[in-house]
Design goal:
Length: 332
């Protein structure tokens, strides 16, 4: 399964019936029940209280019909699959049912911790159900339609840029004129398509007053260009809502300890959202070549003996914290 689009959030859990409040409803209606759903392209495998897993077609009509049969006290748990879970997530939001979208790496670590090494669709659904019951993950918030459209455009641009880079690199090793002309035509075509998508990205941001305000603020910082801005708006919606440690962890720029006993190892970064981290890395490269606070910070670290890579990552984290602070709402 693909975890690159994983949308896991740091925010706390939503309040559901039966949590922290007394009422007169029957216990069966107030106890939260977790359902684990393993998602693939064709079907959903569901693990609940029934010893046997249930299977449903992964189509909007089938999902909507199945959700109508569920009681209101269920919480669905799925893994991010790179897109196959979107129909289920959208249907749950429309039906006002809480659903958590998890990083597959966390789920596999949970399974290994319990000694579950076998892997089938039905077993994966059971692991997701048990993960939900044990750790009670936060519900995934409904996405903003404009932001979802922006994310789709940004992802499409990334894919075309990667393809253009691949063809451009391949051109260097071609000797036949026919092949060189063919590849050059494809590169020109891709450049035209990328330009059109970039125009669509700009129009999408300008169509939303909230996104436009955030984009204008982001662009005011050294090194942050239009593509970095679009990536942050699309893939880091928590920007301006999280604290420094949380936002750094989401981007994969937070240093983690590696100490044990008398041993004190170097700090390291891990996890996070690769696309966001890559955008911040490129923005930082640009910022340290300008007259900016990030450049001063970077050169200070280098003069103190820090390796270039360590100084660059620390500067990217500082830039992210600047951006996060600039988007925080002003106190009333």
């Amino acid at each position: 399964m693909n975890s690159h689009s994983c949308p896991e959030h740091w925010a706390g859990e939503l309040a559901f019936p039966g949590r922290g409040a007394r009422n007169d409803k029957p216990e069966s209606m107030t106890t939260l029940s977790y359902l684990g759903i393993d998602v693939c392209k064709a079907h959903l495998d569901v693990a609940g209280t029934d010893p046997r897993s249930q299977r449903y077609a992964n189509t909007p009509a089938a999902i909507t019909a199945w959700l109508k049969t569920l009681p209101p006290n269920v919480h669905l748990v799925v893994e991010a699959t790179g897109g196959y879970e979107r129909a289920l997530v959208s249907a749950c939001h429309q039906a006002a049912l809480p659903i958590s979208v998890l990083n597959p790496a966390r789920v596999r670590a949970f399974a290994r911790a319990g000694g579950r090494l076998a892997k089938t669709d039905a077993l994966d659904a059971t692991v997701l159900r048990d993960f939900g019951a044990a750790l009670q993950p936060a519900a995934h918030p409904p996405p903003d339609p404009t932001r979802r459209q922006l994310a789709e455009l940004v992802n499409a641009r990334d894919q075309l840029v990667a393809l253009r880079t691949q063809l451009t690199n391949a051109q260097e090793h071609l000797t036949l004129g026919l092949l060189r002309r063919n590849f050059a035509a494809q590169v020109r075509s891709l450049s035209t398509r990328i330009a059109r998508i970039e125009e669509a990205i700009t129009a999408c941001i300008q169509s939303s007053p909230a996104l436009l305000v955030r984009a204008t603020e982001l662009r005011s910082h050294h090194g942050v260009g239009p593509q970095t801005t679009a990536t942050l708006l699309a893939h880091l919606p928590e920007l301006g809502q999280a604290n420094r440690a949380q936002i750094a962890a989401l981007a994969g720029l937070a240093p983690f300890n590696r100490d044990s006993g008398q041993s004190h190892g170097p700090r390291f970064t891990s996890g996070g959202r690769p696309r966001v981290r890559r955008a911040l890395y490129l923005a930082t490269l640009s910022a340290i070549r300008s007259q900016s606070p990030i450049a001063s910070f970077y050169h200070h670290l280098r003069s103190a003996g820090k390796p270039a890579k360590v100084a660059l990552i620390a500067s990217a984290r500082k830039l992210l914290c600047f951006l996060n602070s600039s988007l925080k709402p002003l106190p009333a």
